[in-house]
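Whiteboard transcription, Tuesday session. T.W. wrote the structure tokens on the left side:
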């Protein structure tokens, strides 16, 4: 894991040198031990969040839902219930991005996100 990544980040998405995202599995394991959500639940939502950055851009963090920059304990409970989702607007923009194609470098900045994190949620 990069040393400059916040301790609470699950991953990061890059679009400047190619379109890819990385999920930090040790962080997934660490948060799963808290017992609110399972490793597969955290992993799938972290992957979805980073794919969201690849399609929505680096400034895609929202106040609610799966694109929140910091997941709260309430968000983790929503994950457990399968209820931490993209907004209808985010879903529409992502569908349109897939249809038109996403090119490397289309979004500015590197990394494209600070990753999915849980700062201050406990
Ligand atoms: Zn993010």
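and on the right, the sequence the group agreed on:
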């Amino acid at each position: 894991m990069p040393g400059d990544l916040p301790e609470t980040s699950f991953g990061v998405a890059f679009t400047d040198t190619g379109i890819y995202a990385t999920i930090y599995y040790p962080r997934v394991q660490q948060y799963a031990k808290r017992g609110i959500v399972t490793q597969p639940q955290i992993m799938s939502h972290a992957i979805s969040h980073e794919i969201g950055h690849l399609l929505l851009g680096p400034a895609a963090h929202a106040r609610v839902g799966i694109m929140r920059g910091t997941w709260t304990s309430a968000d983790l409970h929503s994950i457990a219930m399968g209820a931490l989702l993209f907004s209808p607007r985010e879903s529409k923009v992502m569908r349109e991005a897939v249809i038109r194609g996403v090119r490397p470098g289309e979004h500015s900045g590197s990394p494209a996100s600070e990753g999915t994190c849980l700062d201050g949620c406990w």
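Someone added at the bottom: Residues 49, 53, 61, 69, 113, 115-116 surround zinc ion (CB under 6 Å).
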